[in-house]
């Protein structure tokens, strides 16, 4: 049976909002913390490898505490590799790369392209239009993010090419959202799937790391900010475990709303850490954002259901 979801499938959309907000907040904080990593001179490849390795170790510990095992079936391994590459490795590499050249708030704003790209790709793949209410919800959320963008934008000198490169992140996330919704193993645990995904990407990146960086070049820049890298690894483990936990509570378009909350939390953290000003438009954007998410997930209905 096709896993594609409609609004009539109530159980699929049962209470995903809190999880989406939490995941978005964690992701946004991680993007802001990643700015410290790039400032320390750590390469994008080294930073991504360390993040995935630590996240994998944290998740494996949780897997052990839950007395669950890591599935190594062929179907699961295929899912680990493809989903991890599209949804984790590519976005992380792009993020660490472009953060060397653009402000942290701008990176988080780029994440908001993910819901629209996901919605567009979904409609093409499924050969049908998005429900009007869901489309309105996505556009309202995007409007809220626009308020944040205009209020947070400052005059910065950087090559616009880095914005185009950064756009690769939401494109990859959108494809991963759709793939995850279609190919997620039904008999897999959320923690086990997250653990396998992390370790598959560690093994994928290890040869590249050994060819490009020596051991001192990999370890020494991390010594001064080890606590930040440890925090990023822990937060990554939490966000990925939650991502797979809510897999059966929303679909690819609904989950893509994480990008909106990642943007808001990332800008708030960047404002506090990097002294970027916070305006009232940010608080207005948060309110608009909640309306958009509620419309997308069906918590607010534009029309009353007809009595049968």
From TrEMBL:
KW Transmembrane (keyword) present: yes
Bilayer disposition of the protein: Multi-pass membrane protein
SUPFAM superfamilies: Multidrug resistance efflux transporter EmrE
Matches recorded under PANTHER family: INNER MEMBRANE TRANSPORTER, S-ADENOSYLMETHIONINE_S-ADENOSYLHOMOCYSTEINE TRANSPORTER
One protein family per Pfam: EamA
Annotated localization: Cell membrane
Protein name: Permease of the drug/metabolite transporter (DMT) superfamily
Keywords tagged on the record: Cell membrane, Membrane, Transmembrane, Transmembrane helix
Annotated EamA domain residues: 19-149
Transmembrane parts of this sequence: 16-34, 40-65, 77-98, 104-124, 136-155, 161-179, 191-210, 225-246, 258-275, 281-300
């Amino acid at each position: 049976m096709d896993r594609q979801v409609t609004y009539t499938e109530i159980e699929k959309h049962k209470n995903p909002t809190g999880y989406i907000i939490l995941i978005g907040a964690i992701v946004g904080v991680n993007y802001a913390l990643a700015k410290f990593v790039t400032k320390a001179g750590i390469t994008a490849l080294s930073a991504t490898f360390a993040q995935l390795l630590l996240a994998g170790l944290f998740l494996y510990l949780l897997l052990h505490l839950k007395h669950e095992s890591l599935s190594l079936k062929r179907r699961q391994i295929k899912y680990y590799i493809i989903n991890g590459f599209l949804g984790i490795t590519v976005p992380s590499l792009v993020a660490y790369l472009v953060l060397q050249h653009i402000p942290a708030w701008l990176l988080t704003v780029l994440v908001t392209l993910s819901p629209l790209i996901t919605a567009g790709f979904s409609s093409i793949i499924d050969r049908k239009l998005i429900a009007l209410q869901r489309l309105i919800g996505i556009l309202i959320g995007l409007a809220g993010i626009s308020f944040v963008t205009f209020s947070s934008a400052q005059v910065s000198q950087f090559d616009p090419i880095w914005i185009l490169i950064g756009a690769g992140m939401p494109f990859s996330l959108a494809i991963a959202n759709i793939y995850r919704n279609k190919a997620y193993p039904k008999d897999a645990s959320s923690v086990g799937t997250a653990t396998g995904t992390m370790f598959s990407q560690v093994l994928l990146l290890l040869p590249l790391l050994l060819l490009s960086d020596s051991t001192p070049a990999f370890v020494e820049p991390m010594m001064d900010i080890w606590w930040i890298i440890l925090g990023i690894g822990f937060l990554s483990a939490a966000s990925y475990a939650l991502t797979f936990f809510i897999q059966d509570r929303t679909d690819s378009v609904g989950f893509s709303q994480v990008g909106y909350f990642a943007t808001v939390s990332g800008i708030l953290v960047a404002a506090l850490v990097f002294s970027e000003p916070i305006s009232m438009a940010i608080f207005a954007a948060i309110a608009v954002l909640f309306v958009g998410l509620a419309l997308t997930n069906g918590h607010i209905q534009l029309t009353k259901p007809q009595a049968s």
